[in-house]
C-alpha cells in the first residue's frame, strides 16, 4: 500500500493461482498436484489480505464508511465457505475437476474485477484533480 501499487500484486498472485489450478486440472501426477496446491493456496490467501487493505484505503472518508466497506468485503469473501463444499464431491477424486475449474474461473473473474476497479479509480482521481484546486487524498490503485 505504501507505493500505491495494489492492482499488480493482486493480478500477479491470481495469475500464479490460475497456473496452479490449471496444473491440478491437467494432471493426475501426485507431485504435480502437490506443487499446484502450493501455488494456488499461497497466492489465493495473500490476495485476501491485500484486498482488505485496499478496501480500507479506498473507502477512507469516514470511519463508518470504512467499517461498512470492510464488513461487506469480508462477508462477500466468506460466502465461498457456503457453496464450496458442494464443489468437492467424492466422485470427482482425485482431480476434482469441477472444484478446480470453478476456482480457476473465480480467479480469472477477480483479475477482471480488479482491472475494472483500477480503471474506475483512475477515472475518479482524474475527475477529483480537475475539480479540486486544494490538496486531496486520492485513491490508490
From TrEMBL:
Location of the protein in the cell: Membrane
Q: Name one GO molecular function term.
A: transmembrane transporter activity
What cellular component terms from Gene Ontology apply here? membrane
What InterPro entries is this protein classified in? MFS_trans_sf
Keyword field contains Membrane: yes
Q: What is this protein called?
A: MFS general substrate transporter
Membrane topology listed for this record: Multi-pass membrane protein
Q: Give the range the annotation lists for the signal sequence.
A: none
- The record lists the organism as Eremomyces bilateralis CBS 781.70
Q: Which keywords describe this protein according to UniProt? A: Membrane, Transmembrane, Transmembrane helix, Transport
Transmembrane residues, as ranges? 12-28, 34-56, 68-88, 94-117
Amino acid at each position: 500500500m505504501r507505493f500505491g501499487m495494489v492492482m499488480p500484486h493482486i493480478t500477479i498472485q491470481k495469475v500464479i493461482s490460475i497456473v496452479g489450478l490449471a496444473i491440478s486440472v491437467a494432471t493426475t501426477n501426485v507431485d504435480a498436484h502437490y506443487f499446484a496446491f502450493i501455488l494456488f493456496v499461497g497466492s489465493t490467501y495473500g490476495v485476501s489480505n491485500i484486498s482488505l487493505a485496499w478496501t480500507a484505503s479506498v473507502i477512507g472518508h469516514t470511519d463508518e464508511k470504512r467499517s461498512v466497506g470492510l464488513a461487506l468485503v469480508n462477508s462477500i469473501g466468506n460466502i465461498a465457505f457456503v457453496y464450496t463444499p458442494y464443489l468437492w464431491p467424492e466422485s470427482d477424486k482425485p482431480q476434482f475437476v469441477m472444484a478446480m475449474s470453478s476456482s480457476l474461473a473465480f480467479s480469472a473473474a477477480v483479475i477482471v474485477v480488479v482491472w475494472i476497479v483500477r480503471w474506475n479509480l483512475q477515472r475518479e482521481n482524474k475527475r477529483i484533480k480537475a475539480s479540486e484546486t486544494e490538496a486531496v487524498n486520492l485513491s490508490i490503485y
